[in-house]
Specification:
With 238 residues, the protein is an alpha/beta fold. It is 35% helix and 20% strand.
Length: 238
């Protein structure tokens, strides 16, 4: 039985999003064991998979090739209808290059789905104040034991940074989904309510500058451990 490397809640949300969409060609990278690719194939999608470590891929009937997301993806411009990058960007050392390549191989009007750790939920914000770090510090010993960088969270991305990287590459966020509701975060709801009330009285200029539309979005600040971001490839102005 094939099991995904990530959390099942993430896969459930992603699969549900694809259920009522027009069938087409999907690039799934990094594909991991191939669980998501397998489920999308069952829904009638054609799937091409990429992995920096292809030997972990377990689905014999779906093609999986070596892809380093920080290098050129070996497909022509506008080749795919959808691009799927689950638990990938934070592992790269150059997320700008990764998003640039994924946008390049995506058709105009196509959709890209990215998941990133949700460093902007209220629990993570408090944790950052107390600890001083977004992601657990790694040691050189751990690196030498693993022998690679891609197993680590090398690039902690907040929702505003991701939005900027996407916009630079002609991708516009159309929805943000969370994989689950963290019940214990309800303890911090009074603090969130204060932030929402405070934001209400800010000028539109300040709100736009601080991107409160993203940082205070309920799916973000009261979201779970992971954000699932859907972006659309926009046509460049001629």
């Amino acid at each position: 039985m094939v099991r995904g490397k990530g959390r099942s809640e993430i896969y459930g949300v992603v699969i549900s999003w694809f259920k009522d969409k027009k069938r087409g060609l999907v690039l799934d990278c990094p594909a991991g064991t191939g669980y998501l690719a397998m489920e999308l194939a069952k829904l009638g999608y054609s799937v091409m998979c990429g992995e920096i470590d292809p030997k972990v891929f377990e689905i014999p009937d779906i093609p999986c090739i070596y892809i380093d997301m920080t290098k050129e993806i070996p497909f022509s411009d506008g080749y795919f209808d959808y691009v799927l990058c689950v638990e990938g960007l934070e592992h790269t050392t150059d997320p700008y290059k990764a998003v640039s390549e994924m946008s390049r191989v995506l058709k105009d009007g196509g959709y890209a789905i990215f998941t990133i750790p949700n460093y902007c939920n209220v629990e993570k914000r408090i944790k950052y104040v107390l600890t001083g770090y977004l992601t657990r510090p790694k040691s050189i010993k751990e690196y030498r034991e693993r022998g690679n960088l891609y197993d680590f969270h090398n690039t902690p991305l907040t929702i505003t940074v991701l939005d900027f990287i996407l916009a630079v590459n002609d991708l516009q966020i159309v929805s943000i989904m969370k994989e689950k509701t963290k019940v214990r975060q309800l303890l911090f709801y009074p603090l969130v309510l204060v932030l929402w009330i405070f934001s209400f009285f800010l000028s539109e200029e300040v709100k736009n500058r601080r991107r409160t539309d993203l940082t205070l979005k309920p799916e973000v600040i009261m979201g779970g451990n992971t954000l699932i971001v859907v972006a659309k490839k926009m046509r460049k102005a001629s």
